[in-house]
Amino acid sequence: MTATITPIASLDWPTTPLKTSRIERAGSSYLAYESRLLNRRSFLHSSSFYQKAQNGDASSADESPADQEKKKEYDLLTISERKLQKLNYYQVLQRNLPLHASADEIKKAYHKACLKYHPDKTGRGEEDEVFLLVKAAFDTLSDPVKRRSYDSTVDFDESIPKEGVEESEFYNVYGPVFERNLRFASFNDPAKQVAKEGGEMTSPGGKKKKKKGGGGGNAPKSKETCPPFGNDDTPLDQVHKFYEFWTHFESWRDFTLKASKETEHDMDAADSRDEKRWMKQEIDRKLKKMKREEMARINLLVERAMAADPRLKREKEKERKEKAAKEEAKRKVEEEKAEKERIEREAREKEAAAAAEIAASQKANDKKLKEQQKKQLRKAKQLFRKLAMTAYQAAIPNSESAGKVWDDLEQMNDDIELLCDKLSFLELNSLSDALGGAAAVEEDGNAPICVDALAEVRQCAQETASGVERQSLLALEQRKQARQEAADKAREAKAARASAPWTKDELSALAKGVKKYPPGGSNRWDAIALFVNNLCKQPDPRTKEECIEKFNQIAASSAPPQASDKEVAGGEKDVATTAWTEEEDNLLQEMLRKYPADMDKNERWKAIAKGVPGKTKKDCVERFKAIREAVRQKS
What we know:
By secondary structure, the chain is mainly alpha-helical. The chain is 62% helix and 1% strand.
């Protein structure tokens, strides 16, 4: 029934339902498929490598019986010897006899050939090579073992494609090769076909062996199949199954006949049992070698096919990209980890370097402090020796006073060196202060030397030598502390007096004094204080420290002090001309840190003045001195 196709001109579906048709499967290919599926027909009946007919080109599988009948049989008597040698045993018996012919078909073909080529018919004698060839063909094909060995080599192309096959030609080149080699798959073994027919297999030794499961239709159905070769759209799991099958390919191919021919050993013609055994060993050795070569050929075919298969190439490329992506991700993780470790390592190194720098700086400071302490101790010892000698010399005219302390100069020197060796810096300073201090030995000093303190020095030396507590030195410390307390009280009283507010006249006088006595003069602030006191005539005169402090207060302020009098305002204007803002003070401090004191003094102050806009070098120097003086006053 032919289905009617109705074309639709638009996308609108017809209102009436379309007529449905039933399609049934048919054709020779489908019937052959169903036959193989139901195990009613062997693979050999439909495989392309059995479709070669006589001369190796004509196909008998697709020909009708009428066409096959039209073909004339070979006349072996008229064929040349060269062409006769090219015919296989099947063609010798009958021109169109297929390789998968049954035993009955072979017997019928042999009977027909005998009727035609028997010496009784031809009169060519028993040694006729044509008849001997017919007889040899029947002997071989009628024996299942010999026929199996013969079928292993007849009409078979063992060649495999070379490397470098284009992807577009891969399926056309390798497909037929795998198809013809499938002829030797284990499930296509002719012995199985003999077992299905209920026949017997004869072993090489001549013994007959009944095949299990034999008996025609009662033979077990084989479930072994070869996965399809497929095409470019075949799923990868099917492709891997196909190559898995061929990697573990089991071949039934038998090289016994070929090995016998190559070794030129005919076991039937052996003279003895030992010779026959020797021939069998030689044939078996050659047989194993051929079997290894056959498996090597199959393995090489599979390797070349897998190397050229575009489906496997795509899979490998995909796997390579995935592997590269994983490696790239792994590399990035490792780089991030390494970067993190590097940052942490650098941080630790910086911390270690900073700690080492601090430690080195602390060590340098400690060393410097120690050197300073040593220097101070050395100077304290020199001052103490000088004061003691000066006091001793001052006491010499008064022999009674000198004799009460030391008997001679050598004894005095011993005591002085003992004290210098045993006493600390502060203890030596206490004794030096008791003797009159540094002012007593300076050239322009006006402090008197204290001769009476020699007795205390002597007593301290005796106490030091005996190792007892130095009471004399304690007494000196107590007196020094008392003097310090008295000085503090005097300073507090002075500060209380200085806290009195400055009058307008005093401010005006201060402004005039600062202007009159510019920086750089000798005893400038003494002269300014005297000027202020003489001009104002206050009952409590102002000291130079008070004048300096007031000047710094005015200079540190951003605006001049308030005054209604014109003269006072004029004087404050002169003082305010040198006033510094907080920002300028910060700049000055920053420049002082930037340019250290070990530079040349003139160059240093020039550089500092450039860093403070609106101020000269002289202004910067005066401001620095004012700040330093204020710090000293506070301490």
